[in-house]
Each structure stands twice: as structure tokens, then as C-alpha cells.
Amino acid sequence: MAAGTGTASRFSVDEAQVLPPLHELAGIAKVAQPREGHRTEVWYDTPDRSLSLRGFRLTRITDDDGPRWERSAPALEPGTAVLREVALGIPPELLEDVRAVVRDRELVPVQTLATRYLEYELLDGAATVLARVRDESTHDTGAGRSGTNRRAWIIEATDAVLVRDAEAMFRTSGAVPGDAQAGGERGESPAGTTPDNSAVSGGGPGGADADPLDVGSPLALLLLHYLRGQFEELLRHDPRVRRGDADGIHKMRVATRRLRSALSSYRSTMEPEPGRSLRAELRWLARVLGEARDAQVMRHRLRELIAAEPEDLVMGPVAARVDEELLHDYRQAFGRILEALSSPRYFRALDELEALVDSRAWTEAAKEPAGPAAARIIRRDRKRLHRRVRAARKLAGEEHTEALHDARKNAKQLRYAAEVWAPVQPKEAKEMVDAAEHVQKILGEHQDSVVTQAYLRRMGAAASAAGENGFTYGRLHALEQASAQSARERFAGAWKGFPASP
Questions:
Q1: Using omega within 30 degrees of 0 as the cis cutoff, is the peptide bond preceding 274 cis?
Q2: Of 91, 295, 410, 479, which cross-links 330 as Cys (Cβ 3.0–4.6 Å)?
Q3: Dist CA 368 CA 363 (whole Å)
Q4: Where are the alpha helices (DSSP H) in 357-470?
């Protein structure tokens, strides 16, 4: 059936049902002889259905258009790869898009849908095609399951009234609105692969976290709720990172930081391992992602600074040098990302995270009511930030700068700890999240300015050594010094209004 012809509607129908007299529909002069077609879809997954559990799909399709592979992933547009004459196996470009979920596990056929269909064109008096009706019969087989048969009628037309009339005719014939089969073109999970959620929803004190969270829920369930969400976020953005998507790199890095921060703040809820080793692996992953992200951010910042300057104050190939250095840094860093994301170390870290979100390795503290227990953790993290800020005020120069950078990290950890708390005490958590994020952003701007000053000093020295005019680098450095001072002043004001502990 041609795509994009207008409104479409699908009905499930009994195998023995006879197609109604379509020529009796208003405006239809003739129903053309049916065109017969066949379509075979083979769904691939890991033996434990990891792809379908997480909203990914990988299918080999053979129909009138020939063989091809199709892939869907939560954060990507649908992807298709046409098979060459003798090509075998899953196309590498599609396999990369599901690599974080599959890792080094085997992909096997888990379901086959063999569909035979008859497609009828509905014509008006001038032999113009007004609609198409497809009568599909599908035989569905899966690993370890006997086959089942399904049948469906589909009407597609540009005229919504014609579709409505056909729907009424189908209902009168005993057809039921809805999908009778799990077909790849509709992006559903294969029949028989509905997850029991044991891998992503079970575990911990009190069983699965499908039950609503409240202040009296076990603290472990509150933490698991957050960890699972961030783990899924990491997997969602992995394929975007592999494609060099800047936003994907940023969001995957944030997910790793949130995971590590939550494991640190709430470490009393679980046994020391694997939490300690996972925090180290997440730190490694965030650092690898951060090298490329930092180069992107620095290049964007410097380009904006240069663009804002009057032309007569930009002396020499300043923008070209920025691009040359930072694009080189980015390419080198992105190469390290690709290497890391294909490494056994990364796969094992994902395995450990996956196991953790179904963990039973809880301490007695994990059984405490989530509301008061999380509030205690927030108070502790808030006190740590307070001590860091108080210590920074007594320092000067580089030591002061380093202390503010550490305070930013503490503010970020407080923010993420409060995010964990939010499902059970949203109002109180939001106040702390907003305040910590505000402080974190101001201190982040300060740190960005400090790092930019270092870049400008280095590039200015390189430009002078190459015989170029270093005036612009010095001017931009002075602007960044003023920006850092402004950030320190804004931080002082923001800190005065920081909320007290919950």
C-alpha cells in the first residue's frame, strides 16, 4: 500500500470472514482486481529481549521491494539499510545504533511474521484511485512458540468520509477496530515479547517500583526509580553519541554524572560494591565524553566572543586559529569516545549498571521511609556545600578559583540528590533543585571563564611565536577576567538567598 495517501484505518478480523462488497461504498464505481504480495519480517533481539525491553527494534524485511534491514531507536529517526546482492548479516551502521543495549551478546531471530496480502484499488468512474484496501493474513512464529495466525483489513484514502464509510462497513461485517498483528511497519514490540519488567522494574526492598512512590516507600525504591531512568537515558543517547551528535554527547554525559552523583549521595543504601567501582567507571566515562564536549563548548564560546568584537579590534587570523586548535582537539577527543564506547570496559560497566537496577544488595538504611531518609541526605550534601563555600571565602588567587570549582561540583551533587527526592516530596525538592542549579550555573560560568582565559593565554603565545599580532587574545582575556569577576559577584548574591536545609 502506498504510503502517505491520507487517512488510514486498521481492523482485526476473523480468518474466515469474507471481505464486504467494497463497490457499494459511495463514490466507488469499480474495485480493481487485487494485487497479491508477500512480506516477511524477522525480528532480531538478544535471547533475553533487551532491545524490545528498551524500545529498540532491529528487523530484516523481505517484500516486493527486496530485502532490507530496518532499525528504530528511541532517540533516532527510523533507519533503513538495503541489502546488497550477496551481503549477509546485520548492516554495521544499524548494529552500531543498538550496540549499547546488545553489547557483546548474540543477536538471534526471536519472531517471524510471514504476511500474504491482497490489495484492492477502489476506483471512481474516471478510473481514479480513491482508496486502497488491504486484506492481510499473517502467520506469526517466535522462538519457543507455536505459530499463530492473524488477519487484518486496512483502508487508506485521502477522503476521510470514504474512510468513515468503509469503517462502518467493516464493523457491520464483524471486524474490530485495532491492530490484529505486531507488524514492523507500525513499530510495535513483537508479540510474545511483552516484558515482565524483572530486569528494569523489579528488585529491592518492597518488590517492583511499579507501585506509586510516597514518603513512606522504602528509600531503595526511590533511588532505583532515579537510577533506572538515568540508565535508560544513557542507553537512549549512546547511538547519537556514536554519530557525533553534540547534544547527544552532552545528554549522555549528564546521565553519567547523575548516575554517579546519586550512587555517591545515596551510597548508604547499598553494599560498598558494586557502587564504588561503578562510580569510578562512570567518572571515567564522563571524563571521556567531557573532553569532546569541552572542546565544542570552548569553540562556541570563543567564536561568540570574537564575533562580538569590532572588526578593527580583531587583528590577525584569530577565528581561524580557534577553529584549527579546537576542532583538532574535538576530533582527537571524539576518536577516544568511539574507542571507549566499543571497549569491553564500557560494556562491563553497562552490565554492572543493568545488574544494579535489579539489585538485592541493600543495607538496612535502604528500608527506611523515603521522605525523611532522603531529606537527611539532602541536609548532609547541603552542609558539605556550605563548608566548601565558607572555606573558599578564606582563600585567594588560584586556590580560591579551585575552591569555587569544587563548590560547583558540590552544588551539582546536591541538585542531583534533590532530584532523586522529588517524586516523594516535590515541593521541597524543587526548591532545593532550583537553588542548587542556579548556584551551579553561576559557578559554571565562572569556571568556563577561567578555562577560557587559559586557552587564550596559550593561543596568544602560539600566535606571537608564529609572528601574528597577539592584541586580540589579550583583549579577549581581559573580557574574560571581567566575566569571571561578575560571576563571583553574582554568586555572592545567590548564596545569600540559598534555602536552609529541608
A1: yes
A2: 295
A3: 10
A4: 370-392, 397-421, 426-465
Q: Point out which residues pair with 67 in neighbouring strands.
A: 62
pLDDT of residue 143: 63
Q: From the CA atom positions of the chain, what is the Rg in Å?
A: 29
Integer Cα distance of 448 and 458 in angstroms: 15
What's the CA gap between 260 and 276, in Å, rounded? 9
Handedness of CA 471, 477, 478, 483 (dihedral sign): positive
pTM score:
0.84
CA distance 491 to 479: 18
Q: What is the rounded distance in angstroms from the CA atom of residue 364 to the CA atom of residue 412? A: 27
Alpha helices per DSSP H over 111-218? 160-172
SS3 107: coil
Q: How far is CA 154 from CA 33, 119, 181, in A?
A: 17, 9, 12
Residue that has been written with the C-alpha cell 549512546 in this structure: 238
Calpha distance 423→211 (Å, rounded): 12
Cβ atoms of residues 226 and 353 within 8 Å? no
- Return the axis-axis angle of helices 370-392 and 426-465, rounded to nearest 10°: 40
pLDDT in tens, 154-179: 999 999 999 999 999 999 999 999 86
Residue in the block written with cell 517466535: 142
The kind and range of the H/E element at 482 are: helix 471-496
Tally of CA atoms within 13 A in the half-sphere of 343 that contains its CB: 14
